[in-house]
Design goal:
It is a single chain. The protein has 14 helices and twelve strands. It has about 375 residues and is of the alpha/beta class. A hairpin with a 2-residue loop joins strand 1 and strand 2.
Length: about 375
């Protein structure tokens, strides 16, 4: 290091230069250390809670998780996720697996994997997903377990599907749990709810047939372009030499970019009837020729939402209870976002226990 000059201005500049140089060297050391960590890191433990494929219809697969406790809850629960992301966010890794926590707390868990639609699925409809695929999975569980009804939990779009299904076939459902699910689509709290009103859905579906997953993923990124496209990659540098933090980041990145395509006709109905016309809340949504009235739901319902959810804001989820005919209905809010509601430390400590305890109490 050169001799420090005596001139005050030069000294100040010299100190700033040295400080910047030292910061640059520390940053380079962190990058080198991070690369060493990265080469040794094993973050491929996503979706690893043991399970068996027990039923399949077309591309849709039904899995049964191996129970962890000796005498699990006698009435199993089926987890239904959204179509536009993969269900394994609920089993992201063993330290923060929503599924594993439910198993540890005594639930008997099944989950649906909707698969990856291809060009041949352009004509698959919302009726197919709810009245064919979902109904077939529920009937398989009921029949194989000799049960008249099972518990049903839907996350995000899966929660909307689960509520619609329950309104039609509630003799097959013991209890309903909705997690971060949209019901009132005429809200102004989320950018996606504002933008969707201006999408030309018919032109989009007619042009693509099957909506590319990249299109959907880029739409989600544009909801918060700096944080989702730039900021998170800058911030992770601060944890680049931390194997745990880096592993969690990479697991989430893998899930975020695993965005399935969308069957065109289902996407058309989902976006036009609900996001643009809000027909479910109005009591005018029609499925398979039948008008859906959520007031027909009388089974116990638990509605969970996140107060920091920027994708499905609380204002879209909260109206559910007012739309039901159920007398036994409850809501619970938590200070988490859309993914964190099933993949965070708070989810492990509070949300999964809330679900498990409520389901067990209502399964008696």
């Amino acid at each position: 290091m050169s001799e420090i000059p005596e001139n005050d201005a030069a000294k100040k500049y010299f100190e700033m230069y040295n400080s910047a140089l030292e910061s640059s060297m520390r940053f380079q050391e962190k990058i080198v250390k991070g690369l060493e960590v990265f080469t040794k890191l094993n973050y491929d433990d996503i979706n690893k809670t043991p399970k068996d494929l027990v039923f399949q219809i077309d591309k849709v697969k039904l899995y049964h998780y191996k129970p962890i406790v000796k005498n699990p809850n006698p009435i199993p629960i089926l987890l239904v996720y959204a179509l536009m992301n993969k269900q394994y966010i609920m089993d992201l890794h063993q330290d923060k697996s929503f599924v594993k926590k439910l198993l540890e707390l005594g639930l008997d868990v099944y989950i649906i994997d909707w698969g990856y639609p291809t060009a041949q699925d352009k004509y698959v409809t919302t009726e197919d997903y709810i009245e064919e695929y979902l109904d077939s999975c529920i009937d398989y569980i009921r029949t194989s377990r000799s049960l008249p009804a099972i518990n049903l939990l839907g996350k995000c779009q899966g929660g909307t599907f689960a509520a619609i299904y329950t309104s039609l076939y509630q003799d097959k459902i013991k209890n309903l749990v909705c997690v971060a699910a949209p019901f009132d689509f005429d809200v102004e709290d989320g950018l996606l709810f504002k933008w969707s009103k201006y999408f030309n859905i018919d032109k989009l579906v007619d042009s693509f047939g099957v909506i590319p997953g990249d299109f959907l993923n880029n739409t989600f990124i544009m909801l918060s372009p700096y944080n989702l496209a730039i900021g998170k990659y800058i911030n992770i540098v601060n944890s680049f030499d931390d194997p745990k933090a880096l592993g969690e980041f990479l697991r989430m990145e893998k899930w975020l970019f695993d965005c399935p395509a969308q069957a065109g006709e289902n996407y058309r109905k989902w976006m036009k009837d609900l996001w643009q016309q809000n027909l479910l809340v109005k009591g005018e949504f029609v499925l398979g020729g039948k008008k859906i009235h959520l007031k027909q739901i009388t089974v116990p319902v638990l509605n969970i939402y996140g107060t920091k959810d920027n994708l499905i804001p609380a204002s879209s989820s909260i109206p559910l209870l007012s739309l039901l005919g159920s007398k036994d209905k409850e809501e619970a809010s938590f200070p988490v976002g859309h993914a964190g509601i099933v993949a965070s430390s708070l989810s492990q400590k509070q949300i999964a226990p809330k679900v498990a305890n409520w389901v067990k109490e209502h399964s008696k």
